[in-house]
Amino acid sequence: MNLHTYAKLHTHSKRGIVKKHPHDHDPKVNLRTCTMSKTVVLVTGGTGLVGKGIEAVVGRENNTGESWFFAGSKDGDLRDGVACRALFERVKPTHVIHLAAKVGGLYNNMKHNVQFYRENTQINDHVMECSKDFKVQKLVSIMSTCIFPNKITYPIDETMLHKGPPHDSNSGYSYAKRMIDVMSRAYNQQYGCNFTTVIPTNIYGPHDNFNLQEGHVIPGLMHKCMLAKKNGTDFVVWGSGTPLRQFIYSEDLAELIVWVMRSYDSCDPIILSVGEEEECSIADVARNIAKAFDFKGNLVFDTDKADGQFKKTASNAKLKKLNPSYKFTTIEEGLSKTVKWFENNFDTCRK
Ligand SMILES: NC(=O)c1ccc[n+]([C@@H]2O[C@H](COP(=O)([O-])OP(=O)(O)OC[C@H]3O[C@@H](n4cnc5c(N)ncnc54)[C@H](OP(=O)(O)O)[C@@H]3O)[C@@H](O)[C@H]2O)c1
Fold first, then answer.
1. What domains does the chain contain, in order, with CATH numbers?
2. Is 0.85 surpassed by the pTM of this model?
3. I want to staple 273 with a disulfide (CB 3.0 to 4.6 A). Which of 22, 51, 316, 319 is the partner?
């Protein structure tokens, strides 16, 4: 049986995730009772932007001998150590891709640094300790380029993570995320665990959070542009539009994370990003979004609003050396696909 069938058919019940077997009369079949594969991958944060990207990517593959389990917070609140252990008991993963986190945009981070620090630290602590206790063969956890030092030379590379304090705006999130690297190394050193980390740049794609207050820049701009088109108003971008960012399409990142899980064996982090030459301004992103929506009104920059870090250019030299043939989706294509998804799923998406 193609084990990805399970991944595609998984559904939630009040008792947590269950998997539908196409030939079973009782659709609520526990994952462990129907999984025959040796490799069982638990994806924490499996219902979010990146998790959905991974689900799409592995759903397109055949006969990998892997069984995939995508867990959201309804399957266990990972801030709670008991709930985290119960999830591991249920899934008994051989591999874990750890994405679950309290995630938010600049303005949300600025207001809630304490919550971003505490909740992410709790989640990461529980997932790592369970991964050790359940003898997980490989744990891949995710950090972010926005946690690098504020004052730094560019391009950023993997060796610079702890060489100075992060930007004040998201210090809670950043320090909690940096501890993933510290603790992965400590688990490797003390217990011989195969824990590694990846560092993506800004991610966007289908299933993002399009909420105007809490979302990241791209989904926020898409929602604003849609409203501006609908209401015949200006498309107002917060800030000057000049900051530069490297954006990665969620399914590209998903492919690279799966590649890391299968092929990258080092506790040193690896930056997963498009090249430095692909860096683009927020203004360019906004123009591309306006084009994808066929928005004909005015594009306005509200310079009274904060810009955040001007740039945080990251080097993908290590990735290019280890995986030289990987081809990224262009920003125009990725934005256009995401706008289409947002329009088609407006009623049900996070917003
Ligand atoms: N988005 C970016 O631009 C970006 C950039 C760099 C790094 N990252 C990192 O990438 C990872 C995935 O981000 P994303 O953009 O996919 O986030 P997202 O769409 O907001 O998804 C977050 C995921 O975490 C789960 N989650 C949150 N709190 C939880 C809790 N207390 N217990 C269990 N699960 C919980 C959510 O579950 P429910 O939805 O079911 O509640 C959801 O599946 C995060 O670690 C983030 O820090 C993101």
1. 3-208+246-278+315-334 (3.40.50.720)
2. yes
3. 316
